[in-house]
Amino acid sequence: MALIAATIARLKAAAPDLTDVLAVEDLDAIGKGVAPKHGTVFVIPYREQAEPNGMATGGFEQLVHAQILVAIVIRRHDDAKGTKRALDFDALKNTVEQALAGWSIDPRGDLFELVAAQAAPLGNGVTVYVQTWQTSRYLETD
Q: Is the pTM of this model over 0.85?
């Protein structure tokens, strides 16, 4: 299963309290699209970096380090100072972290680990809390 689809399936199965889990092309699409509900999570492709082919003769096997973004939508219109939104970060990010930390899409690859996180206010009572997650996978041919 592809990385984005597998991550979405994992979040839906391991974090059923999330409002919804969807794929999106990039962060800009969240702000420009239809206003997502509080607790919606978006999984976004980010970057990959590959190691050289590990096989000298015959076949092909390459370790690929992959990063994805997980954007958590926090929506509170009755919160001018952002106090409630800030408190919501902890609960929602913990839900995502418990589902992804230490999980692996490829049994031979690295476990998912959190690399960084940052809040990004979108205005109108909405903040997106964006986490960068890293894992690895193998690219192989016959």
A: yes
